[in-house]
Amino acid sequence: MKQQSGFTLIELIAVIVILGILAATAVPRFVDLSTAAEEAAVQGIAGALGSASALNHANNIADDAGLTTTTTVTTVGNCTDVASLLDGGLDADYTITAAAITPEGASAQCTVTGPGAQTATFTGYAVTQ
User: What is the 3-state secondary structure (H, E, C) of the chain?
Assistant: First the structure.
């Protein structure tokens, strides 16, 4: 007699049921990650803006002290001016709340808003030349 190999119908149904249970619990966790992605993107932009502002401020201090610097100091008088410090500027989907930063060397908490109305804050530093 020939011995058959393979899966029985009961085994196949059990596997399908197990996969269905796994899908029912895992899919909702991954369906709506767009909000988390938007939050992360806005926080990343805010971090880049804060870093750019701090580097511009440090470069200005070095320039004022008579040290040789290799980058150009950019004037920053309000939060929206910080966007010009990014290579390529700020993407059109993001906006910065306009708030004055005065006098030179002062700092202010600035807010950037992205798609989905996600917001994050960064520190902007006033720089005059």
Answer: CCCCCCCCHHHHHHHHHHHHHHHHHHHHHHHCCHHHHHHHHHHHHHHHHHHHHHHHHHHHHHHHCCCCCCCCCCCECEHHHHHHHCCCCCCCCCEECCCECCCCCCEEEEEEECHHHCEEEEEEECECC
Hey, which residues does 113 pair with through a beta bridge? 95, 119
Residue 120 confidence (pLDDT): 97
Sheet of strand 95-96, all strands in order from the earlier edge strand to the far edge: 95-96, 107-113, 119-125
Nearest Cα neighbor of 124 from 116, 71, 105 is: 105
Q: Give the model's pLDDT for residue 6.
A: 81
> 29: pLDDT confidence band, cut at 50, 70 and 90?
confident
pLDDT at 1 over 70: no
CA 48: distance to chain centroid?
8
